[in-house]
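debug: dumping io for the single-chain case to check the tokenizer round-trip. Nothing else runs in this session.
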Amino acid sequence: MKIIITQAEAVEKGIWGEVMKMFGVEAEEEVWPSEEYILTEEQARRIGIIQ
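debug: decoded output
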């Protein structure tokens, strides 16, 4: 299973920092709120999106 989350959703859930680390996004990079990130089921579990 794949989980898709946008940057705005990640910020809203308070997990944007974890998503940034997973995808190698640097703090100074420009990111659109609608930009999507595809997580594996394991990644989603690790950051608490699913149980």
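debug: round-trip ok. Residues 13 and 49 are 9 Å apart (CA to CA).
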